[in-house]
Each structure stands twice: as C-alpha cells, then as structure tokens.
Design a protein that fits this description.
This protein has a five-stranded mixed sheet. The chain is of the alpha/beta class. The chain is flat and about 65 Å long. Helix content is 49%, strand content 14%. This is Thioredoxin domain-containing protein.
Length: 215
C-alpha cells in the first residue's frame, strides 16, 4: 500500500507540473492575442511594410545566388576557378571525385540538393586533375565533400561512413549531414519546398557492371 501511495503521489505531482506548463503556454498565447488586438491600423501597416522589406531582401538574395550559379550542380574544370567560387559564395559544397560508381552515387544526391538549397553553391572537381587542391586539402578517399563557409573549409564528408556506410543512403541522410554542418539551411526560408515524392530518395541501382572504388 505504501508503494501504491507513493506512485499515486508521484502521478499527482507530474499532473500538476503538466497542468502548470499548459497554463503557462495558454497565458503566453493570451498575451500575444491581446497584443495583436491592441494593434491599430498604423501598427499593422508597419508590420506589413517590415514583412515586405524582408521579402524584397530575400528575393534579392535569391537573384544574386542564381546569378552565381546556385540552384545547379556544376563542374569546376580548373583549380583557379575553385578559389573564385568559394570567394563569391558564403556556403559551398565541393565534391572531389573520380569517374567511379561511388562518386556517381554522390553526384545524383548533390544534383537533387542543389535544386532545393539555392542558398548554397554545389560544385564538383576531378581530384586527379587538381593535385594542388587535393594535396592542400588532404583529399585521399573519394568521394570527399569539402564543406566550405566564408571561403574556409569547415568540415568534410569522406566516403559513405557518415551516411550509413553504404551506397544505398537516401538524399535526406546527406541533407541532414550538410545541415548539421550548417552549410545548408535545412528548413530555412531560402530552401525550396520538397515535392511529396522526394521524402525517401535512394539512387542505388543493380547494374552488375558498375565497380565500387572508394579510394
């Protein structure tokens, strides 16, 4: 009986805590509604103007990003072009690749993400034709993604180890990894909405002729 009484007391305390939280949320909502009710026409006009200016700034950002090549997954053909790209954009995902199956898997995911995250520039460069960059950035395993913010390499995604250790990972898994590195805005207003058929996206295919070279 003492144990049952202890449990009953515990549930009562928990119930009071939950009710307290609910009451605090309700009070906050009531305050916000009351504040909105007190707004006059001039206040609403200020809010509308502020929101309009925010929308204009975002539209200008989008235009600038698109003019720099954002929204597409493109290839860099010369090492000097790499430096121009990372200086022009605040956020860059650069895929160091070679012509093999793992890199082609990464290509398909990056091409998809480039369309959705126009706040970030997505590019690729052939590692074997970029010896200076590969050496400077210590690129050994391919594919490797260099995650660059404000012209500095901030993080790497090397191979598929951080993506489940298999070539059958979904685009969402890579998206979450890039968001964790803050090189994309995961649910930000700059990102384009996903279509309903893109929730789980895998690019694994069953071609027996494709080799799997991870170095």
């Amino acid at each position: 009986f003492a144990y049952i009484s202890f449990l009953s007391c515990g549930f009562q305390i928990l119930e009071k805590q939950v009710l307290s939280v609910v009451k605090a949320v309700e009070d906050q909502l009531d305050d916000e509604i009351a504040a909105l009710d007190k707004l006059d026409e001039d206040d609403l006009e200020v809010l509308r103007e502020r929101r309009l200016q925010q929308m204009k700034k975002m539209a200008e950002k989008r235009r600038r990003w698109i003019s720099l090549g954002h929204g597409e997954y493109t290839e860099i053909h010369a090492e000097k072009e790499f430096f121009s790209v990372v200086k022009a954009s605040d956020r860059v995902v650069c895929h160091f690749y070679r012509e093999n199956w793992p890199c082609k898997v990464m290509d398909k995911h990056l091409a998809e993400l480039a369309k959705q995250h126009i706040e970030t520039r997505f590019v690729k460069i052939q590692a074997e034709k970029s010896p200076f960059l590969a050496d400077k950035l210590k690129i050994v395993v391919l594919p490797t993604l260099a995650l660059i913010k404000k012209a500095k390499v901030d993080d790497y995604v090397v191979g598929f180890d951080q993506l489940g250790g298999t070539d059958d990972f979904s685009t969402d898994v890579l998206e979450e990894r890039l968001a964790k590195a803050q090189v994309i805005f995961y649910e930000g207003e700059s990102s384009l909405p996903k279509s309903t058929n893109q929730t789980k996206r895998s690019v694994r295919q069953s071609e027996a002729n494709d080799s799997s070279d991870s170095e």
